[in-house]
Amino acid sequence: MSKPISDLAKLAGQRLTDMRAARPLVQSITNLVSMDIAANALLAVGASPAMVHAPEETGEFTPRVDALVINVGTLSAEAARSMEHAVSIARVHARPWLLDPVAAGVLTFRDDLIKRLLRHRPGIIRGNASEIMAVARAAGLAVDPVQTVQRGVDSAHTSDEAAALAHKLARHCFCTVVATGAVDVVTDGERMVRIANGSPLMPRVTALGCSMSAVMGAYLAVCLDPFEAAFSATALYGVAGEIAAAKSTGPGSFRVAFIDALYAIRPKDVATHLRVSE
């Protein structure tokens, strides 16, 4: 680790302040299920969302953004074309981008797209444990491909099971990888931390992980180090989840409380409540 754990906790709070001051414009080419909550999560944390999807507009719009988030959840041929066009433009214009490989390992069309997108060097790959393992398999890094197969968007593995492959994938793709679960793993192939914040209600609300990717994109816009961006966003999300759960009686009330928590959370809340280990 280049920074002690205590310094990383303070860093997570400082990066929240930096992101809110910058109010980054984040283009999210995301799935149809997550558009609403992703946009509202970005607004709540202080960023500016832009859900510009049309391939005819990405050439004009993507150079204007501070970061790009690609989420492959509800794919179509047109959506795939827009994603590939946007990431190629982002790379030309030095705009950082994040890949959320929803349901990787389930269907051939999306796996082929994910392979093509990886060639454009995302700064961060964020997914649940099974998705990260499937991306590693697609990159030729998994020893036993049967173990990485899942049925849908829900993870069939823990982040601890994915940790070794996340580490390999980060080194292979020269990026930061986040495998989320009850304990989240963040690694850039050199550093690795585990964050144990969050709530069991979080996976009970659809697209909450997708909105996490959008918020992480906001941090990526203001952090020169993608590892710091991924760590800080993951820390924020986990602590906000715990704050929201304390005020909720079920998934419906949690969804509302979570957006409120993202809006009201302070840097010292993140630094104080964060549970992080190597």
Characteristics:
278 residues; alpha/beta; UDP-N-acetylmuramoyl-L-alanine:D-glutamate ligase; nine-stranded mixed beta sheet; 52% helix
Description:
The protein is α/β, with parallel strands linked by helices and 278 residues long. The chain has one domain: 3-Layer(aba) Sandwich (UDP-N-acetylmuramoyl-L-alanine:D-glutamate ligase), CATH 3.40.1190. It has helices at residues 5-22, 35-45, 55-61, 77-92, 108-118, 129-138, 159-173, 208-222, 226-245, 251-264, 267-273; strands spanning 25-29, 48-50, 67-71, 97-100, 124-128, 176-180, 184-187, 192-195, 276-277. It has a nine-stranded mixed beta sheet, sandwiched between helices. The longest helix has 20 residues, at 226-245.
Low-confidence stretches: none
CATH hierarchy class name: Alpha Beta
Radius of gyration from the alpha-carbon trace, in angstroms: 17 Å
Output the CATH homologous superfamily.
Ribokinase
The string of secondary-structure elements, in order, is HEHEHEHEHEHHEEEHHHHE
In total, the number of domains comes to 1
Strand content: 5-15%
Look up the CATH topology.
UDP-N-acetylmuramoyl-L-alanine:D-glutamate ligase
User: What structural class do you assign from the helix and strand content?
Assistant: alpha/beta
User: How many β-strands, per DSSP?
Assistant: 9
Number of helices: 11
Sheet with most strands: strand arrangement: 2-1-3-4-5-6-7-8-9
Shape: globular
Which architecture does the CATH hierarchy give at level 2? 3-Layer(aba) Sandwich
Q: Report the span from N to C terminus.
A: 8 Å
Biggest sheet descriptor: 9 strands, mixed
Arithmetic mean of pLDDT: 92
